[in-house]
Amino acid sequence: MTDTTDTTAAGAAAAAESDGRTPILRAKRLVKTFGRVVGLDGVSLELYPGEVLAIIGDNGAGKSTLIKCLTGAEIPDEGEIFLDGKPVHFKRPQDAHAAGIETVYQNLAVSPALDVAANLFLGREVRKKGILGSVFRMVDQKGMRQRAKDELKELGISTLQDVTVAVENLSGGQRQAVAVARAAAFGSKVVVLDEPTAALGVRESQQVLELIKNLRDRGIPVILISHNMPQVFEVADRIHIQRLGKRAATITPESHSMTDAVAIMTGAARV
Q1: Looking at the predicted structure, is the pLDDT value of residue 263 above 50?
Q2: Helices 172-186 and 141-154: angle between axes, nearest 10 degrees
Q3: Distance CA 43, CA 6 (A)
Q4: Homologous superfamily (CATH) for 1-100+187-271
Q5: Which residues have C-beta within 8 Å of that of residue 53, sequence separation ≥ 6?
């Protein structure tokens, strides 16, 4: 299988690198098959520091498979993945986490019964110093709550004033904010958001979009998978378009309209 990346995508990547920017995350010619079903057919992708890269495509275009390969949930059959210019080989999601790639899936994977602070540190609980933490393994609840407050404040999340509230008492938008804040707190290199506004109303969706912008302003690159074209064009710096397991194009909101993007995505137009 060959790399079918279009000249627009290759030209955009070359232009970015000529400006002195090096991709923080790069995939080259990824191939993934499931029996006779081709999930990815030579897909390449570049994510640059401090940008929001949206990935769009129709159902079955390979969006989810691409993300799973980038985050360790799937192992590509062929191709290479580079993080900070160095080749990486993720065999499981924990490997991607350890490398600084955090993913927020549609189901959020939050624990409703735990409070906001506990969810932010879920699986990464901080122990108390000294013998209380090393021997008795006591959790530094006060320290975690303070850090949770600081993290939410830095991200501009004003809807979560009390980090001791159980997540089950929060709205959909607030739960999404908790999941994104957790990813931002520990995703030192890349944050991946899979349809973060799919189940949210207009107001809560806008809050999440502002959160994505805040991540970018902090210099954290974001990969955004979404079917919502207006939202994609509002926050994305570049848009990676998947079609039939291949990268059809990489465009920008300045170079193409939403109509153009849909036409490329459906095969009605080519770049």
Answers
A1: yes
A2: 100
A3: 11
A4: P-loop containing nucleotide triphosphate hydrolases (3.40.50.300)
A5: 45, 46, 47, 221, 222, 223, 224, 236, 237, 238, 239, 240
Counting Cβ atoms within 10 Å, is residue 4 exposed (0-12), middle (13-18) or buried (19+)?
middle
The boundaries of every CATH 3.40.50.300 domain in the chain are 1-100+187-271
For the chain, the 3-state helix, strand and coil shares in percent, each to the nearest 5, are 35, 25, 40
In one-letter notation, the amino acid at residue 118 is A
Unique residue bearing structure tokens 């006779």: 36
Could you tell me which residues come within 8 angstroms of residue 257 by beta carbon, excluding any fewer than 6 positions away? none
> pLDDT at position 13, please?
53
SS3 21: coil
Query: What is the number of residues in the chain?
Result: 271
DSSP bridge pairs for 25: 47, 83
Handedness of CA 37, 248, 60, 47 (dihedral sign): positive
| Tokens 């275009």 sit on residue | 61
pLDDT digits (tens, 9 = 90+) for 90-129: 999 999 999 999 998 876 678 899 999 999 888 888 888 8
- From edge to edge, which strands make up the β-sheet containing 246-251? 101-104, 190-194, 222-225, 52-57, 238-243, 246-251
User: Tokens 């990464």 belong to which residue?
Assistant: 124
- Write out the two tokens for 160: 């979560």
Which residue carries 């029996």 as its tokens?
35
Predicted model pTM: 0.84
Report helix, strand or coil for 112. coil
